[in-house]
Amino acid sequence: MKYILIFLFMVLFIGCSSNNFKYADNNQIKIYDLLNIPQDVSCFAKNIDSNSSLYDIQKEYKKYYFSIWNIDKPQEDAKSVMWPFESYKMGESYGENLQLLKEDFFDSIRENSNFESYGTVNEKALTLKESDIRSFPTHRPLFKNPSLAGEGYPFDYLQNSTIHANEPIFISHYSKDREWAFIFSSYASGWLKTDAFVILKKRDIDFWQKAQQVAITKENEPIYDSEGRFLFKTKIGMMFVLVSEDENTYTILTATSFKKSQPLFINSKISKDIASKEIMKLNQENLTKIVNEVSKTNYGWGGMYKQRDCSSMLRDMFAPFGIWLPRNSYQQSKIGNVINLKNLTNKEKIEVIKEKAIPFQTLLYKKGHVVLYVGTYNNEIIVFHNIWGIKTSRDGIEGRIIIGKPIFSSLKLGKFQENYDKESEILNNLVSMNIITQK
């Protein structure tokens, strides 16, 4: 009887608490927005205007995607791409052991970077697997002061971005040890391991660009060659050449490495349930599907650990809809019809957003972070974003409440948290909004 009473008490307690304040995830921290704002995209996808014509924007997607194959030399000078050597220096940079990096680390990296050979290779290539693009030719991390909130793990400043499998790149030159190549993609530049790509001939480049493409619409599905050998897993944002199709499958062209790093092209069959031959319509059904898929990954600074950060999530999310976005949050904030919010009061910002923002077509930007406007809930502006955490401040010391995943929230995320840092509030720091589907 004693145990039955205890069990009934626990059921009653859990049932009552679920109507008021629940624990958020497993970290025993109650986050108001996650408990009081629906975390189901279908609640907001009904706000989308399915009648808006995106043809002019969507027809440009392939041009941007393949743009890096249509240059003959780097479009930036060597000094501009060597910015990491000015940004990360001895005395203020920490390594994987959380100790200050020494001078020999930077000297050896600079020597191996071989920038005197910048722009001498100038080859077009295709990535073979999802890979990290690094700011230095090394997988060793570089942190700012790890004792400060918002620094240290996972903020490895040498992590520039990730790049998907079978994506176009341009090779500038190789490191002296030839383990790395300095590459450009359509949205990022940096160092890529030389075993992560194959050089293509002009006929292959021309064929790849002219062929019909299929866009991946489902995460983490394995792709195999014709003999069942594993190649890689799918990510939203991937595109592949369509070879043929039957009732249930697409046959796509994938690439792997052959003798002397020459490309070997392979036919791979994938289910039509995980890809789309046509550019997807920006409607309720498709949005729900794609948002649910990109929400399966956690927060990953610079795409580390095959996860996503705020800008890479939005970039990949819009890819199946034929809407091209740059890679980082600042560049994304300049796409489309930009509306300045910088000198407005918070009340005025809310009024402008409610009046002019279009659900699922409008980005809101503050320095270092970008969010997607999805509409209102209980008359409050709601956004979708991938976020590391909420800033806190106690006795002048910064802290973080870690979220580390994509969420729907208000622009005042964290306002009910203990030691909430009002100065860091999203709304308080918004500087612009931009409707990405308007020119």
Subunit organisation of the chains = single chain
CATH architecture of the largest domain: Alpha-Beta Complex
> Taking all residues together, what is the mean pLDDT?
92
Shape: globular
Strand content: 25-35%
Give me the count of strands.
20
CATH topology of the largest domain: endopeptidase fold (from Nostoc punctiforme)
From the helix content, strand content and strand pairing, which structural class follows?
alpha+beta
Global Rg? 23 Å
What is the CATH superfamily of the largest domain? endopeptidase domain like (from Nostoc punctiforme)
Spatial ordering of strands, largest sheet: 15-20-16-17-18-19
The largest sheet is:
6 strands, antiparallel
Helix content: 10-25%
Task: Give the termini distance in whole angstroms.
Answer: 70 Å
- Number of domain units: 3
- What's the total helix number? 14
Low-pLDDT regions: 1-24
GO molecular function, one term: cysteine-type peptidase activity
Family: Belongs to the peptidase C40 family.
Protein name: Glycoside hydrolase
Keywords: Hydrolase, Protease, Thiol protease
